[in-house]
Design goal:
Order of helices and strands: EHHEHHHHEE
Distance between the termini: 14 Å
Shape: globular
Low-confidence stretches: none
Number of domains: 1
CATH architecture: 3-Layer(aba) Sandwich
Mean pLDDT: 94
CATH topology: Rossmann fold
Radius of gyration: 14 Å
Number of helices: 6
Strand order of the largest sheet: 2-1-3-4
Largest sheet: 4 strands, parallel
């Protein structure tokens, strides 16, 4: 398996033994996932959940040097959005997922996710690995 970019859904469940066991050895994260994780504590409905989300963000920041959403990813985003539109799905409510997919596409990475349906319509563009 090629390098795999971890979707935010995988990072949220990173401590689960089944998730860890399913991941390839060579993994990376996107700055888009870090942005999603950074938003998490501000959206928590109670102090315990906020603390849990802060801890997860700090853990991911300590474990990974994130890959920036760069010019090549921006170009790939257009391709990804077009594929989603051709499949009959809307891209507007799934911008973060598609930015992550575009990052994987630009780098030639697989994309590991817990929610394969979030990336329906990308077959042939980005290898999706459901963990």
């Amino acid at each position: 398996m090629a390098t795999a970019l971890l979707d935010t859904s995988v990072l949220v469940d990173l401590a689960e033994p089944a998730v860890l066991a399913a991941l390839p050895n060579d993994v990376a994260v996107s700055t888009v996932s870090l942005a999603e994780l950074a938003a998490g504590p501000t959206l928590a409905t109670n102090a315990l959940e906020r603390a849990r989300r802060i801890a997860r963000l700090q853990e991911v920041e300590a474990l990974f040097a994130p890959i920036d959403f760069d010019r090549s990813a921006a170009r790939s985003y257009g391709i990804v959005v077009a594929a989603i539109a051709r499949s009959g799905r809307t891209h507007r409510s799934r911008v973060a997922d598609l930015l992550i997919a575009a990052t994987a596409h630009a780098r030639g990475f697989d994309l590991c996710t817990r929610n394969g349906s979030d990336f329906a319509g990308l077959r042939g563009l980005v290898p999706i690995v459901v963990v």
